[in-house]
Amino acid sequence: MANIADVAREAGVSRSTVSSVLTGKKFVRPETRERIEEAIARLQFSVNHGARALATSRTMIVGVVVQLHGGEFGPALAPFLVALSDSARSEGYDVLLVTEADQVGAIHRLALERRVDGVVLFNIVDEDPRLAALSDHDLPAVLLGMPADSQGLDAVDLDFAKAARALVRHLDERGHAEALFVRWAPEMFAQRNSFVLRFNDAALDEARRVGLRLRPIDCPADPERLPDALTGALAERGAATAVIVHNDAASALLPAALHEAGLQVPEDVSVVSIHSAELGRALALRFTSVETVPGEVSNAVIRTLMARIAAGHGGTQEDVRHELIAPRITDRGSVRDLT
Amino acid sequence: MANIADVAREAGVSRSTVSSVLTGKKFVRPETRERIEEAIARLQFSVNHGARALATSRTMIVGVVVQLHGGEFGPALAPFLVALSDSARSEGYDVLLVTEADQVGAIHRLALERRVDGVVLFNIVDEDPRLAALSDHDLPAVLLGMPADSQGLDAVDLDFAKAARALVRHLDERGHAEALFVRWAPEMFAQRNSFVLRFNDAALDEARRVGLRLRPIDCPADPERLPDALTGALAERGAATAVIVHNDAASALLPAALHEAGLQVPEDVSVVSIHSAELGRALALRFTSVETVPGEVSNAVIRTLMARIAAGHGGTQEDVRHELIAPRITDRGSVRDLT
DNA sequence: CTGAAAGCGCTTACAG
DNA sequence: CTGAAAGCGCTTACAG
Predict the structure, then answer these.
(1) Same domain, A217 and A251
(2) Does the distance separating the beta carbons of A77 and B78 come in below 8 Å?
(3) For B145, left (φ over 0), alpha (ψ -120 to 50), or beta?
């Protein structure tokens, strides 16, 4: 495989001149540049990435560090990985996928061995131990998720609180006075998943504010037990005329549960949901809903990370950036107007 | 950040001796080794990965190169990525996730810039252009998928043909004489996805062999149109007493479609399916089925790739390894015994 | 505008 | 068993 010395010899110039055309940081006389470019093409030369990384102290790689808690809905993950990869590539970066169970150890490894220029942390929980691990280093990082305390780190996420309020108001404005609130399993609350807590708190708060009765239904973590839990909740809905769902597994299983209970939407019961866009698409869910926006979130995450890398440092700053992406609600007519 | 020279100085030895303890390839006197290890701990030293990669010509990174055709079922992807990452880590490798649309360009880039020591190709189709791209280089590669012609490359996959035969026989042995075969969309066949073709061909062949009438139902690629297609097929099932499903989206939507059609399983109709394990778990699918085994497949893929990397070459070999993982059928009682 | 030299942080024969 | 030296393939001041 050709190296820069081969190219220099072939073009009759020095290695530094070749390097100048490779980096594009220095002006090179057109004739010379052309000779060099021909030599590069002839020899099928490409820059050795590792050597460049060593010389520049830039790996051009970002780590995507994914904590798998087990409680969350697996199918929702891939779209974010793909979107992050796409966003990173558009900035010239590759993505290192880091899913090992020992996330704290992984962060130390990435930082100490200088494997990446920055990291994205996925599946953020409140009191996430990964944030403390980061504070030992000077590694640029962005949280994909919004914990109560970001510990001075940049963070980006869909605005789950605003989404919750919008969905609650959507029901309220159509005359609904009582609704079931199908939530994630208690295990998810115990883990303090940031998006779970933020949606939950805002939904309850907004419901109180507008005077909607919200009856929380905690789902079992075990998918096997979910169908019965859903049909049970529907059967005992009492005065509730609507259901608001924040639990992807429940959103996926709700159509069957509604069938099972013999309920038509929106004639017998109204439904609003927030769920993975991919899930909604694959299962053709027809609920009025807020869907995740992996592309938008990933773009914002990578943009923020690029800025942090360019600034030449990670860690706690005064100029922390928190970005909450406004939710969009898609009206699919699954809410009956009772007014 | 400390480097190897700092450690050498701190321990009062030469850099090469430090390197010897780092690589573990040379014997170092216990006292010396201990002094060095103390120095390493004191200085919080870790090997700079890029420098080691340059010196050894080993990146300790494998590329996972994922073609997203769009037709396949998205939620099935993540478990494979995670499993590949886990398998690779257990061999000391990290995973670079490569999802860009221009997969051929990506392969050239990875090879020429020496970014990875090897690649795993995911979502293999017959006549996959990525295989030709690989032949331009000397990059170790393993296909996760089994095309009709692997062009001399190692390949690993679940044995979809055997799975098809097992499911067909499962119906036949229980006295079913006619079944609907809910298949992937024609678009998937046109793309020639390797697992789609292999399951399909084997299912039809085995059905012919045992004398089971199999009526292919082509699903629409658009999930929106899938529910109606399924209920329609069920309504017009005629003499068919069973359904065999190879289409994850259809497996996911079938429970609702069965409800819609007022059919009980297995009383009114029997069902067997092959689908993503993750999907089956998340949706608590209760069909007798073969499920994907991302962990097993990934282990085999990485093991094969490691052997290929150790051999010091990629490309076409005489010693090609093809590994088909035996399917396991889980009997969930969704097939009625008609004998 | 171009080149010679030093340096990035390691590993690895090769002497001793 | 340990060390001095060369080398991996780049980039980047610094001269000219």
Answers:
(1) yes
(2) yes
(3) left
**pLDDT at res. B74:** 77
Q: B302 and B200 in one domain? A: no
| CA-to-CA separations, B137 to A1, B117, B119, B257, B313, in angstroms, rounded | 10, 12, 12, 49, 10
Task: Give whole-number Cα distances, B142 to A247, B157, B191, B278, in Å.
Answer: 37, 10, 20, 23
Asked if residue A109 belongs to a domain, the reply is: yes
Domain that holds residue B30: 4-47
At A70 the pLDDT is: 76
A90 Cβ contacts chain D strand, under 7 Å: no
Residue of B nearest to A138 (CA): B1
Asked if residue A286 and residue A171 are part of one domain, the reply reads yes
Examine the domain organization and report whether A189 and A313 are in the same domain: no
Q: pLDDT digits over B139-187, tens only?
A: 999 999 999 999 999 999 999 999 999 999 999 999 999 999 999 999 9
Q: Is the pLDDT reported for residue A272 higher than 80?
A: yes
What is the identity of the amino acid at B34? Answer: E
CA–C1' span, B14 to C13, in Å? Answer: 16
User: CB closer than 7 A to strand C: which residues?
Assistant: A 12-17, 20, 26-29, 31-32, 51, 54-55, 57; B 1, 3-5, 15-16, 18-20, 22-23, 25, 45-48, 51-52, 54-56
Question: What's the number of domains chain B is made of?
Answer: 3
B235 and B207 part of one domain: yes
The CATH number for A28's domain is 1.10.260.40
**pLDDT band at residue A314 using 50, 70 and 90 as cut-offs:** low
Q: How many residues does chain A have?
A: 339
Say whether both A149 and A182 belong to one domain.
Answer: no
For residue A257, which of A281, B232, A247, B277 has the smallest C-alpha distance?
A: A247
Q: What is the pLDDT of residues B61-107, one digit of tens each?
A: 999 999 998 777 778 899 999 999 999 999 999 999 999 999 999 99
Distance from CA(A290) to C1'(D9), angstroms, rounded: 51
What token pair was written down for B169? 């026989």
Split at pLDDT 50, 70, 90, the class of A317 is low
pLDDT tens track for B177-229: 999 999 999 999 999 999 999 999 999 999 999 999 999 999 999 999 999 99
Quick one: DSSP state of residue B125?
Answer: B
Which residue among B292, B308, B334 closes a domain? Answer: B292
pTM: 0.94
